[in-house]
Amino acid sequence: MSPGALHGDVGPDPEVHGVRGAELPDGLVEAVNGYEAALMRDDLEQMDRYFAPGERTLRADGTGVLVGHEAISRYRRTRGGAARRTVTAMHVRPVGDRHAWVLSESVGILGGTGLVSQLWERDEGVWRIVAAHVSQSPISS
Question: pTM (2 decimals)?
Fold first, then answer.
């Protein structure tokens, strides 16, 4: 998937920042972009594929923590989609050979800004989210 697919018709591609002198892990940026595109389409099946299976997977925001893939999937099916946003920057920090931490900065199309922090894990060549934290500033009136 191309980086432009991240936004559909909303905004430019984000700036991707790695650690000086370190290469970005193969396929990670494409996986992050693929998840974001699935989120913006509210493609529940695709989003499920991007989160690691099992009870060790976490998703948190200002309302609490969801523990396990099934709890995260159930939450997504009842919320009615995520607020539309444009990712403006992505900061990638490799953590060993199989993990990377990603912090994405975004701007909501209705206003406000947000941060998404994700720990990604590569298993058999496939990147999946094992932990995520979402925060969003209020929309100005």
Answer: 0.85
